[in-house]
Structure formats: structure tokens, C-alpha cells
Amino acid sequence: MEFKHKSVLLRETIEHLNIKPDGIYVDGTLGGGGHAYEVCKRLSSKGRFIGIDQDEDAVKAASRRLSEFEDRVRIIRSNYCKMREALAEIGIYKIDGVILDLGVSSYQLDDPGRGFTYRVEDAPLDMRMDQRQHFTAKDLLNTYSEMDLYRIIRDYGEDKFAKNIAKHIVAARKEKEIETTGELTEIIKRAIPAKVRMNGGHPAKRTFQAIRIELNRELEVLQDSLEDIIELLNPGGRLCIITFHSLEDRIVKNIFKKSEQPCTCPKEFPVCVCGRKSLGRVITRKPVIPSEEEVVYNSRSKSAKLRVFERI
Fold it and tell me: Does domain 10-106+218-311 have CATH number 1.10.3470.10?
């Protein structure tokens, strides 16, 4: 299956990255290389681009797409949470810009074998972003306690029927191990009132999202990585992050705010005594969202938000 993915907020992200032709840029979620291609087009022979992705298929697809820029491109199979270490191994300690597109790629959603989609009945419950990882969605569903299932579906799926869905999952696996996306979808449908299933979106969407986020530690990785990535930026360097989930966006917003205004002194203090210095400024006071045209062209962009931070 060919790796296809429509890059979300492509023009807006490239504009906000403020690319210098001789700069060093990193895409920490390389995917099929859509954003990367536009960055590389703007680099001179002195510029450098490093693409990072944990998905082997993405690494192969991006390598093909960026082959014409091979003199300035380096692609690394890793998680962006290990960006500092990965860059240090190739002698890079400061960079001029970073892109993080936190969405699941169209390829991952559309390939039944990856198990990300609830639209295919007989796909394996996989959902691993990095298939070197042994623990799968099937393992999670069949081993997590009812309370833990409830927690992740409630928090990461924001589903008001989380408690009942968790209860039905545990009851079903007592009869038989849950193995396919179709089996999970039917269990979820039984846990949600018929009237809600008729009027809402797909009943399994939120639960599938929650399981994927938990399995791949997506929010934990994001929370633990951003301050380190900001520290990597040269003065004037920018971090552009595209989120698709309210919890992701909240983490980005809060860390950007803390990095801009880190002072912990009481407001009544006339001068700062905590010694914490601002790392930069938030460029996007409100997130950049897709145009109406983009949403029509690519429905998966509907929930996307772009936030940008600039190092000082």
C-alpha cells in the first residue's frame, strides 16, 4: 500500500516556520514528508534538514519523496522525544526550527493491517505507531483493568459512556479474547444507547482514539518533550505544533505559556527574585485553524490547530 497523507495546515506552518535558507530544521513527525518537502525546497545547499519518525513505512516513503534533496537531508527512525540524543549523534546541538504534526497519518488510518480504524471489521487490533514495540492494542484491551479502561476512554476519548464501554469490554473478554477491530466496534455499539448511535458520529471513534493515545503514550511524550525541544532552538528559531485533540492542544498551550512567562514570584513582588528567565514568545495568541477550503478538501483537517513558539 502506497503511503499517502495530505499535510494539514501546510502553507500556514511553512510561513510560520520563518525558514532561513542556510538553517537547520527538524520535522519530528516526518510522516510522508509533505511538510518536509516544502522546507527542503526553501533550503540552500548550506541548509540541513533532519526528519524523525518512528514508523518504518513513513521513513521509507519520506526517503523516496525527499530523494532530490539528499545532499541536505538526514532521516532517522526514532521518536521525537529522543530528538536531542538523535541530533547529538550526528553532531547537531542547536537548530533553527521544528515541526510536530501530531495527527495520525492517512496511511495509518487507511491501512487495515495497522488496526487504527474502526471502519474495517477483520483488522487486527494493533495501533502501534512504532511496530518495534511488542505491546499492542489487543494486549491493552485484554489486560487492562476495568478501572483503567474507564479512565483512558473517559480522559483520552472524552466519551460520556466510558464507564459502560469499559464494563462491556471486560464482560466480552471473559467469554473470548478480543482480537479484531470489528469485535471491539460491536462491543462498543452494545454499550451505547441506540438513540445516541443513530444521531451521533461513529460510536467507536472516541474509544479507538483513546486506546491509540494510551498505547503510544502520546500525551506523555508530548508533555515530556516540549521544553527540551524549545531549549534546542537557536535565538529566533521556531517550534510549530499541529494538534488534533483538545488534550494535546491544552498541553502545548500551557507549556508555551510557561516557557514565555516562567516567573513564579507572587504578583505583589516589585521585582523577580526566582531567577527564571523567559525562553521566548508565543507567536500565535490564538491557534491557527484550517480554512473552509482545506476542510472541504481534507475533512481530517477539521480539528487541527497550529500553535507557534519563538525562542529568544
Answer: no
